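Format notes (please read before filing issues)

Several people have asked whether sequences and structure tokens are stored in separate files. They are not. Every record keeps both together, in the order shown below: the sequence lines, then the token lines. Line labels are part of the format and must not be stripped during preprocessing.
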Amino acid sequence: MYNLLVTAMEGAWDEGFYEYDRSRFLEYTNEEVAEALKDLSPTHIENLKSYPCLFAYEGEDSDIRIGYITSIKLRRRNILIEFEFDKDIEPIPFDQIQPIAPLLDIRGWEMNRTHWAVKDEDLFGRLSDRGILEGDLGRTADIQERPVPEEPLNPAISTVQEFIGKVFGIDQGDDREVFYRGHSNKKKYKLEPSLFRRDEEGNYLYKDSEHLLYRELLVSNSADFQTDKYTLDSLVRMQHYSLPTRLLDITSNPLIALYFACKSSGNEDGEVIIFSVKRKDVKYFDSDVASCIANLARLPQSEKDEISFKEEGFNDQRPVRRLLHFIKEEKPFFEAAIIPDDLRKILCVKGKQSNDRISSQSGAFLLFGLDSIFDEDGTSEITVTRISVTNKNYILGELDYLNINDSTVFPYIENSAKYVANKFKFNKLIQPTA
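Then the structure lines:
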């Protein structure tokens, strides 16, 4: 194992410390490794510090240094690292590394993006085999140790009654609103929108094409979007049609979340995630901040990458001016001044009940800003509690007695017909059995 740390900031590796946006951590990292490290527990921080590092600059002209991370501190949006170079290893020209890039799992165009990847490769072994390094290579015994996911300690339920007891037992306060989300496989699914999903190699599947996904569906199904006033309205409708968006579905009905936690992956434990949000922080479909974030969907990824949050004159940047143009199309009187941090927020939004499915599922959404990552343990604005779910088939039977089933959760006549046919199939009795 080794860390690959890339930056575009000239001279950054001369300072002995560096700060990464959390969204850039684990890019270009295999899914299994990323899943294990995503929570950055104390054990995993120690793992990362034991791995050797390649410190590189964007492009292929600068030398690469080898060293180790000495400190990792988590900030609200960033990860601060301190590091030191191995004094016994001279800087290595990238043209010596480039021929063996595939052996080090350095992928095409990866060196053109600021990020922190964790690679499942023997760095010193690969460099020694090619004669790039010689002699004592230091802590070689540690570098093959792979990170192991840590099991969260969450209460488990196996009946609807137990679940309701757990829900009522969580004191949320009178000034907060509570939402829920069900995951059928608690080990597999993360709190991220479909737009940010990656393949097994850690590459984004859809994010770089967000603006094309948005426009292509509008072009091919324009009649369905004619009544939408805001870009957020269109994103909600696109989410309904299963297009990858920067929205994550949540619900105000805990039993709906329990249904989704049980609906599939019968051999895996599910979970219900409970989100608690201050009532004043819950936004509505016509929120100005929601418009700022939603219209990011219309910017090409190359323009999103150009946005700098450190420059003065934030709103004078070309991509920000274009974003303002999109916002003013739906809100002509919007003041031409976006607050930079607003673009990186994760908002809890109540959208319009624009279709029967959203209404039946008591739907709301988390709207993800630019490169936003939701901390699986919650944030200062949104607290998170988890309930593990077992005995799924039995719970589905109990939920059916409460009229929560395929027919009511997905209120279309074809779903109702399938449900009724299955319910009255010969010799089939729908009831909960232990």
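For reference, the curators noted about this record: The radius of gyration is 24 Å. The first helix runs from residue 31 to 37.
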